[in-house]
Amino acid sequence: MTPFLHKDPVQGPLQPADPEESKGIPIASEELAMIANPRSQIAEQFRVLRNSIVTLNPEGAPRTIVMTSALRGEGKTVATLNLALAMIELARTHVLVVDADLHSPSVERYLNLPRRQGLSELLRGECSIDRAIRATSVQGLSIVGAGAPPRNPSELLGSERMKTLIAAFKQRFSYILFDSPEAMTISDASLLGATADGIVLVVRLGSTPRHYVEQTHNLLEAMGGNVLGTCLTGASEVDTAARYAKRYCSLAKSKPWRRRTADAAENRETRIGRPVRAERIKRSMWFRSHASERSRSE
Length: 298
What we know:
The protein is α/β, with parallel strands linked by helices. The protein has helices at residues 33-36, 41-55, 76-87, 107-110, 119-123, 129-132, 153-157, 160-170, 188-195, 210-222, 278-284, and strands spanning 63-69, 95-99, 134-135, 141-144, 175-179, 198-204, 227-233, 237-238, 245-246, 251-252.
């Protein structure tokens, strides 16, 4: 199965987005279980993951969450989009997904949308926020694409303009999810995490070496980030109804949102859910959920 439906390579400058353009383009990717099969076990487990996160935010304040991982290929974009689709099922909840992977963007391709101006143009002052935010065919879900690849993504993401932009997003949306690149090799996720309210670390069970997860966790917190927990993918479970392997995701070792006080940097020592053995994770997690998607073969 090919995850990317819309092949739209960048040729020359990107055009500004038409705010109404994306509303007429249906979301059809099979990997987005919340759309493809909303009554499936897979979709239900994304709702459990959503509930785990919402539980950490009882006051209902607008929150920014950075989705990242230690390495590439751990399912960040699919997890981000499915989580966003699960969140908008809640009453009066509007979610913005920002493609902050300025090195290898993929949000627009998963949603079958053409590439348009987005985050990089916003941060360079070449595009207004109203033209960059694109409503989708799903009510309550909006996106900001990555835009044209900048020469120095870290410079843009770590700028004061980025902080101003995040504040503007929070005035319009309940949750803002940033799909960011892998943190072990690219510094962008650490920069975003230091500004956001929380970070969810995506880990592929049985694939990502444990010491990479620990190094990534320590790096994110050393840079001032607040790691809420680990989102685990890749554990095989038999679905007797559909007879295919599914991926497993859980928000483990969760902790509250960033405290805006002088002692916010204290008590940051948090043990990581171990990605090698699912049994050990299940014994240690505070909140559990399963966020699954179809495997490539039945």
